[in-house]
Design goal:
Largest sheet: 2 strands, antiparallel
Order of helices and strands: HHHEE
Mean pLDDT: 89
Strand content: 5-15%
Distance between the termini: 25 Å
Length: about 70
């Protein structure tokens, strides 16, 4: 299941140049919220994604600078 989370997160951000959210990944993979958040945090911590906290407190993940096809 973690592979699906990584694949979708990278597809949304790096390939499509879009932001993604844990909720979007959960909906598409049916993975647990905890697993999705852990995967996205690991991806962000290791430079695969950039985490951004919006004014309303929600978190979204974006391509790192210079990424996107």
């Amino acid at each position: 299941m973690r592979d699906k989370v990584w694949t979708l997160a990278l597809m949304h951000t790096a390939r499509m140049g879009e932001a993604t959210t844990p909720e979007k990944i959960i909906e598409e993979t049916e993975a647990s919220e905890r697993m999705v958040r852990q995967c996205l945090n690991v991806m962000s911590d290791n430079g695969f994604l950039r985490r951004e906290r919006k004014v309303d407190g929600t978190i979204r993940y974006l391509p790192t600078e210079g990424e996107g096809l």
